[in-house]
Amino acid sequence: MDTEKKAKDRWREAYEGRGERDAEFSTMSGVPIKPLYTPDDVEGDYDDKLGYPGQYPYTRGVYPNMYRGRLWTVRQFAGYGSAAETNERFRYLIDHGQNGLSVAFDMPTLMGLDSDSPLSLGEVGTEGVAVDSLEDMEKLFEGIDMGEISTSMTINAPAHVLLAMYVVAAEKQGVPPEKLAGTNQNDILKEYIAQKEWLFPPEPSMQVFKDMLVYATEHMPRWNTVSISGYHIREAGSTAAQELAFTLSDGFAYVEAGMEAGLDVDDFAPRLSFFFNSHIDFFEEIAKFRAARRIWATVMKEKYGAKDERSLLMRFHTQTAGVSLTAQEPYNNVARTAFEALAAILGGTQSLHTNSFDEALALPTEEAVRVAVRTQQIAALETGVTNTIDPLGGSYFVEALTDELERQAYDYFKQIEDMGGVVRAIENGFQMEEIAEASARYQREVESGQRHIVNVNIYEPKDESDVETHRVDPTVSEGQVKRLKELKERRDNGRVEECLEAVKKACREGENVMYPTIEAVRAYATVGEISSAMQEVYGTYRETPVI
Amino acid sequence: MADTIRVVVAKVGLDGHDRGAKIIARALRDAGMEVIYTGLHQTPEQVVEATIQEDADAIGVSILSGAHMTLLPRIIDLLKENDAEDVLVFCGGTIPKEDIPKLKEAGVGEVFTPGTPTRKAVEYLQGQLVG
């Protein structure tokens, strides 16, 4: 022991004698990093803190065999234009062996607006597919057996309306809700915190969440009602610790909502899943993923009394950081995305979306998407990183950083709890202020040259190369608005009115709003009509902007 | 021209990506300008109304939804209709390079793409509006 001490002292002296280059030695979130980590930096017992993959507390992975059993799923998010165009794309993907679809909706749909709303100007079908009514949902899945595929729908504020449309479109194909597999994002809390696409104030939004959770728990055993998302929180400029803490505290709020609605925690917790960002600070990201698994398992078991092992497993999807991409010399983004993808893989993700190099400029071209997919395949099949489980487990540095992120997350949980919970904290603007502060700090560090971004504040590009960008067909909007107008003339408008009244009644009287929403959708009431009807009862929301 | 530059920072379109708008609002404020941040989901009509009410010298539009070719010319037209075409319009966000000349032709003063240091926007406004 003495000789070891001496060796460490000798190294310390030698290190100080040599000096350091002029650089910032901290993570991008501001965690100071020591020059060397040794066994002295790792606390606690191996079995308690790390254990084995597929065993509590799951620090090393959620499955016993991880990537030696099955590689992560390559899941690229896509969609634009009309339902008919996206349907063509889906059929192409299915013909080429894909059995999971991932639907991107356009901005009006995400905001619960119809294509003919004045607010939808210029946004119909540009960032995703436009869906106004059941008719569009039927077209989206025409010729596709909805009982055979799994569908991920990135939809939040009006998620109950889109879920209702999915259920009725399937019913028309003869497929009952019990057979439907998939996920809707439906994480409304992170909308208030970061993505900012909402319909109602937080409290009634949580009521709608409960209604969906109860409906899906009773009728849709293969459906994931929520994908609890840190991605958007990070893109809004948060630190890694804030992403971890705010995402998990949202997750716990959903668990509490389910229990308040009278469900047993083990009836729904196994179907909760997560969605994280993988940013550019390599080890910090890996530590974040490992800490997330350990915290989730610990709190689910100890605080919420989950008994089913599946309730303790944090399964997650990861997307590389869009915000890390630069418009300058866009080909460099291939390298950034590859490092971020590697961090997600070493962090044990279940599925992965790699961004395309041209996404600081526009939606990606097909060629750019292909490079992004190939990046994952190269990582999976050429680099050898999948040969053993959690290869960085036991690294003095990675374990110390995992502990540090965990500590910071618990600090935030305490602050949020002291404020009266997640919804109260949102109403106080707490998470938004923390994120705005972190985002401004990082920007200052970049602008002062304390942190470097290649081609942005160091090695500035002299001669910018052009890349070809993707264009969206500008006629989509006209076609969509025309079809919507025709539908409104053709359908039984008396029946639509009755159904919208029933939706409002359920909102007023605290009945499960999923059932009248399904009937309204069946009568071809639109996303915008159902959303406005509910806003009449629940009110709208406007945040106090924090700068 | 008043001594202090007054800028409306506007987030138009339906997307909620407000990191850039907040960063630029802070940077302009730190540079001594008076900043009015509109918050999210603003229509061109609301932005122009705020600009006129606040008697602002410039509008900084943050847009990442892909609707820039529709919404920016609309803001400029509305300024003209309200005899406020002297208000300087600049913008930032995910804007393809080939759209930049078209936007400038439509009357946008400057376009800042991702990664531009905020001091460039500060210098630009000072250069255009002071002296």
UniProtKB/TrEMBL annotation, chain B:
GO terms for molecular function: cobalamin binding; isomerase activity; metal ion binding. The keyword Repeat does not apply. Residues 4-131 form the B12-binding domain. Transmembrane segments: none annotated. It holds the Pfam family B12-binding. SUPFAM superfamilies: Cobalamin (vitamin B12)-binding domain. Keywords: Cobalamin, Cobalt, Isomerase, Metal-binding. Its cofactor is adenosylcob(III)alamin. PANTHER family: METHYLMALONYL-COA MUTASE, LARGE SUBUNIT, METHYLMALONYL-COA MUTASE, MITOCHONDRIAL-RELATED. NCBIfam families: acid_CoA_mut_C (TIGR00640). This is Methylmalonyl-CoA mutase. It comes from Rubrobacter marinus.
